[in-house]
Design brief:
The chain has three domains: 263 residues, no CATH class; 84 residues, no CATH class; 77 residues, no CATH class. It contains 19 helices and 14 strands. Helix 7 crosses helix 9 and helix 16 packs antiparallel against helix 17. The protein is an alpha+beta fold and 457 residues long. The strands form five sheets. A four-stranded antiparallel beta sheet has the order 2-3-5-6. Strands 4-8-7 form a three-stranded antiparallel beta sheet. 46% of the residues lie in helices and 18% in strands. This is Plasmid replication initiation protein.
């Protein structure tokens, strides 16, 4: 997977297309506001049976965005995933209740339509554009019955909106600490965190987060898509999320001043709260490094430098060049603080890293990569064989969906995944044959052979 970090698309987080309420009954909303001299109008229309996207839908949209990024950012926005894996990405339990909830969330995101007038940012061109879309433009899934019930075998395939795909591929994204977001207690709090985290970023300078934010209470309620315009009701709706975000260390303080419709909310963010993508957080925890220490290291050194140090640490330990005497955490911290004292693995005369506290440059990274010996390069089969069978099946499903998107539907992918899980098909062999058939321009032959094999077993 190309980008293991967790991100959010800035148009979605800034405009907020998901109502920050636990339950919704309305079938549309229409918000108009002024931003930097521009009049922006955002509208949502939903089917009566689903209501507008709200609550848990925010978890699903964040999961789908990062799934799309991790599966390689295909040009047409296609994605494929099992319901079981998508539930994990959402931070939900793998139970029948959440299978049903996931299905309804996906249907709602597929059928609800959005219209953004003058407020969708085309980041590469530096322009504000209009956009009309469904978050999920196409949706296909396998099911246990004629009613579309999700179960343990369900595979979901779909396509994200072109506007969202173009924005992600154009780099208009920001870090999103999904582990922190999913640890928050209620959907409303998670949605508000995501909205606030998007509002911290200047659309013209997305690399410069704000320390403070002041918003009109009524305008903020519209931004959060809260159903009431009564100041007292708005304050009560936001009170619990505010309390939790302060308690959890994301907000330093929240103050509401003024009277009536002129009330203003003043948010103060904790400057030291640095978003941690899940890969960095997981790796640091494996070494025994606390989250607080990891955030401090990220602020001081930058992600690229830390990843390079951890990779070098692992290689040196594996080859016996570095012997851990106390703890992995202490040894890794010393390497990060004194990089010049450690060699690059596999070279006799190591080049030196930048001094501690400086983020490694692209030129240095390129130089380091050239120094690594090009021996024993793992094949696709090697990489898959090293994974648990569940991950092997997910990778094959995602890859086949990308390579054979017009030839294999969700039901076909369901059958392939199940065959791998049950040991009736070998993931490395399936994927190698798929790639080889593509190179020979024999896709139809491969698909026919694959389906025949699955039918036989």
């Amino acid at each position: 997977m190309s980008k293991p970090s967790r991100f959010d698309e800035l148009n979605l987080s800034r405009l907020n297309l998901i109502s920050a309420v636990d339950q919704a009954e309305v079938t549309e909303w229409d918000v108009t506001f002024e931003n930097q001299g521009r009049v922006v109008r955002v509208r949502c229309e939903a089917l009566p049976k689903y209501a507008v996207p709200h609550g848990l839908d925010s978890d699903v949209t964040a999961a789908l965005l990062n799934l799309y990024i991790e599966q390689g950012e295909s040009e047409d926005g296609r994605f494929a995933v099992s319901a079981t894996t998508l539930l994990k990405l959402c931070g939900w339990h793998n139970t029948g209740k959440y299978h049903a909830t996931l299905r309804h969330c996906l249907e709602r995101l597929h059928t609800s339509s959005y219209s953004v007038s003058g407020g969708w940012r085309d980041h590469p061109k530096g322009r504000w554009t209009h956009a009309k879309f469904h978050f999920i433009e196409s949706l296909d899934f396998s099911s246990a019955d004629q009613y579309g019930t999700f179960d343990e075998r369900t595979v979901i395939s779909g396509r994200l909106a072109d506007a969202i795909v173009a924005s992600i591929r154009g780099g208009y994204i920001k870090p999103l600490d999904t582990e922190f977001m999913l640890s928050l207690s209620r959907p409303r709090t998670r949605a508000l965190y995501r909205i606030l985290d998007g509002a911290r970023f200047d659309p013209d300078h997305p690399d410069q987060p704000l320390d403070q934010l002041e918003v009109n209470l009524i305008a903020w309620a519209e931004q959060c898509k809260l159903p009431s315009t009564v100041p007292g009701n708005i304050r009560r709706a936001l009170a619990s999320p505010h309390e939790e975000l302060v308690k959890r260390g994301y907000l330093r303080a929240v103050a509401i001043t003024g009277r009536g419709k002129a009330q203003v909310i003043r948010y103060e963010f904790v400057r030291e709260f640095t978003p941690m993508d899940s890969v960095l957080a997981r790796r640091f925890r494996n070494y025994g490094v606390a989250d607080g220490v990891a955030r401090k290291l990220l602020r001081e050194h930058g992600r690229a430098f830390l990843i390079e140090c951890m990779d070098r640490f692992d290689a040196l330990v594996q080859r016996g060049v570095l012997v851990v005497r106390k703890s992995k955490a202490a040894a890794l911290m010393h390497l990060i603080g004194h990089p010049d004292e450690y060699p690059y693995p596999g070279v006799a005369s190591p080049e030196r890293l930048p001094a501690a506290g400086k983020e490694i440059s692209l030129k240095s990274l390129e130089k380091a990569s050239r120094m690594e010996p090009l021996l024993n390069v793992p094949t696709v089969a090697d990489e898959l064989a090293a994974l648990p069978v569940e991950q092997q099946a997910e990778k094959v499903v995602a890859r086949l969906s990308f390579l054979y998107r017009k030839r294999l539907n969700a039901v076909d992918l369901d059958s392939v995944r199940q065959a791998i899980l049950e040991g009736r098909a070998a993931a490395p062999q399936v994927l190698e044959e798929a790639v080889a058939a593509l190179a020979r321009n024999e896709q139809d032959v491969f698909v026919q052979s694959l389906k025949s094999q699955l039918e036989r077993v």
